[in-house]
Amino acid sequence: MRLDLFPLNTVLFPGMRLPLHIFEPRYRSMLGRCIETKGEFGVVLIAEGEEVGPTAIPYQIGTTARVEKVEYLPDGRFNLLALGETRFRIERIVAEEPHVVGEVELAPMPADSDDATLQAVEDVRERFERLVTLMIEIQAGYMPEFELPDDPIQLAYLIAAGIPTGPGSAQRLLEADSLADLLSLERELLDLRMEQALRRLQEKLDARRN
Questions:
Q1: Per-residue pLDDT tens over the stretch 33-73
Q2: Are strands 40-48 and 101-106 parallel, antiparallel or unpaired?
Q3: N or C end of the chain, less CB within 10 A?
Q4: pLDDT for 14
Q5: CATH of 2-106, one of 3.40.50.360, 2.70.150.10, 2.30.130.40, 3.40.50.300
Q6: What is the pTM of this model?
Q7: Cβ distance 33 to 3 under 8 Å?
């Protein structure tokens, strides 16, 4: 299938929402059509280049998205909220002007319900909940109750989006070939972030004593 692509300096995971401010004429036109037809477009992380200006080269794996909400501004610009839907792989670029168009193949995460994977899901869930609790404690804030999804793939993508990390690491998570691989990468990142958070919390406690 052919898909209009939007190269950005961010990674969109399936099931996650992405706010966008649209001001370049090429993307106003592209996304205007998506809004009119209720069609989808592809969000891809930039591998080389910039968001604004000459066409950027994207990574091969991205996520399809649909527009959920639009706020039109008086000068033709608009803000929108996009919802990530399905992962895809770019087979080839078929156009670069006025915006990138790719020939893509959908690549949804395969379901995996074996016992080892389900145990890994619970392990990652617990790690993520501990990290959130630590971050709230460091910031001396209030943690409202939140519910994580039961579906393993939805949970894994929500955690992927919630781990504080850079776009390169986020792209690695998006590119994981299986749920087991994704959970393994998340466990490594969560352990690293928890170590950092514990150090910050200890520094905060030490500063209070001095």
A1: 999 999 999 999 999 877 666 677 899 999 999 999 999 99
A2: unpaired
A3: C
A4: 97
A5: 2.30.130.40
A6: 0.90
A7: no
CATH class in words for 115-209: mainly alpha
If DSSP states are collapsed to H, E and C, what string results for the chain? Answer: CEEEEEEECCCCCCCCEEEEEECCHHHHHHHHHHHHHCCEEEEEEEEECCCCCCCCEEEEEEEEEEEEEEEECCCCCEEEEEEEEEEEEEEEEEECCCCCEEEEEECCCCCCCCHHHHHHHHHHHHHHHHHHHHHHHHCCCCCCCCCCCCCHHHHHHHHHHHCCCCHHHHHHHHHCCCHHHHHHHHHHHHHHHHHHHHHHHHHHHHHHHC
Q: Which residue ranges make up each domain of the chain?
A: 2-106, 115-209
